[in-house]
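re: the backbone from monday

yeah here it is again, tokenized this time
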């Protein structure tokens, strides 16, 4: 029997962010099973006019139309792992950016922000879908959404200028918005800029401005003060599925029926920049502090009542007045965030996660999880890559 021919596979990723590094890990995980593959990683995608690496196939983040056309002209099998641009001609595995926007808006509104802001290049497909996902939630729940670049208009003037001028432009935009405002950014790098703008403008985080990034790049999010909350993206799951698809293409399979396979975001890594915002009501603030510190326990509304010293009816009225949510909804949201993180990051069994996140039983956990997310805990884990990398 003849050995399979050696294949040179070029992986063109932006390894300066957590998503690109996650995709790379996923590719490496599955590529180990393809013993006739030789993998070449490019730390950053080539410039649109730069030389392409010699390869028999490509997995690439296609965020530039010129590069896309050059790779298509090359003729080798190609899988795209970016949803930044609409790529109708390229098999794509990526992230549901509309779902990213929905998750971001839900997180910020559950944290008490009724006015939301979005900063992202909405003149591109992925960020525009993200903004649309936020708008859907705001429209359904009642609130206000403002974008730094409305209607997909590219930045001009200070917003497109150097670092200090961009910080000033963000600060001026924030000061025009009603506060408190929860701001979601297309990347953690931009979230850093928003935090810098708040510090320069004297705006308190998270009291006046909540900040939520995207990608959960711990190099950026952890050292910040306060730490930056961020939407977690399933980069590793994308890399695994993209490698599977490329292997099928190299084996002679035709293009997939679905042009794009999209994975849901895997949750929010909650840090200080979006901890439940304080309100003018001392009793509500005291209850929020209990939820922050004990939300993972089997906490009940009556536990909150006992902690803050007012009746259940009064506490629920004050929550609706200041947060537009009930105490029970915020307790469940806190538990859900912990459960999502454990489903993605650990090998714990679902029944153990239910207990760790404060649910009364695995059955209660499954019912509540599906009601709040639209999928089961097992389905969420599989969408995040758990079927291949996580047990239980």
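seq for it, each position gets an aa:
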């Amino acid at each position: 029997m003849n050995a399979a021919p050696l294949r040179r596979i070029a992986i063109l990723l932006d390894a300066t962010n957590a998503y690109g590094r996650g995709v790379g890990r996923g590719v490496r995980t599955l590529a180990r099973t393809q013993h006739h593959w030789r993998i070449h990683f490019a730390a950053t995608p080539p410039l649109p006019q730069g030389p392409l690496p010699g390869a028999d196939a490509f997995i690439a983040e296609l965020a530039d139309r010129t590069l896309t056309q050059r790779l298509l002209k090359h003729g080798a099998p190609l899988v795209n792992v970016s949803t930044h641009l609409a790529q109708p001609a390229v098999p794509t595995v990526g992230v549901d950016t509309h779902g990213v926007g929905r998750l971001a808006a839900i997180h910020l509104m559950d944290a008490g922000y009724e006015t939301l802001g979005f900063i992202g290049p909405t003149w591109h497909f992925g960020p525009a879908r993200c903004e649309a996902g936020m708008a859907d939630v705001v429209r359904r729940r009642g609130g206000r959404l403002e974008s730094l670049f409305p209607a997909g208009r590219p930045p001009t003037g200070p917003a497109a200028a150097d670092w200090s001028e961009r910080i000033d432009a963000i600060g001026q935009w924030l000061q025009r918005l009603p506060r408190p405002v929860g701001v979601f950014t297309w990347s953690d790098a931009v979230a850093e800029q928003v935090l810098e703008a708040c510090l320069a403008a004297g705006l308190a985080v998270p009291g006046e401005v909540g900040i939520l990034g995207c990608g959960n790049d711990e190099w950026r999010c952890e050292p910040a003060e306060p730490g930056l909350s961020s939407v977690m993206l399933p980069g590793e799951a994308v890399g695994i599925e993209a490698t599977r698809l490329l292997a099928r293409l190299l084996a002679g399979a035709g293009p997939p029926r679905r042009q794009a396979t999209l994975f849901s975001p895997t949750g929010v890594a909650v840090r200080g920049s979006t901890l439940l915002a304080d309100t003018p009501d001392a009793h509500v603030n005291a209850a929020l502090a209990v939820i922050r510190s004990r939300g993972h326990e089997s906490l009940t509304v009556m536990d909150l009542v006992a902690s803050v010293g007012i009746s259940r009816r009064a506490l629920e009225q004050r929550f609706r007045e200041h947060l537009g949510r009930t105490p029970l909804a915020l307790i469940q949201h806190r538990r859900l965030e912990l459960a999502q993180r454990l489903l993605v990051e650990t090998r714990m069994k679902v029944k153990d996660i239910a207990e760790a996140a404060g649910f009364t039983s695995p059955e209660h956990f499954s019912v509540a999880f599906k009601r709040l997310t639209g999928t089961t805990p097992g389905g969420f884990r599989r969408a995040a890559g758990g079927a291949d990398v996580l047990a239980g």
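The longest helix spans residues 327-345. The chain has a mean pLDDT of 84.
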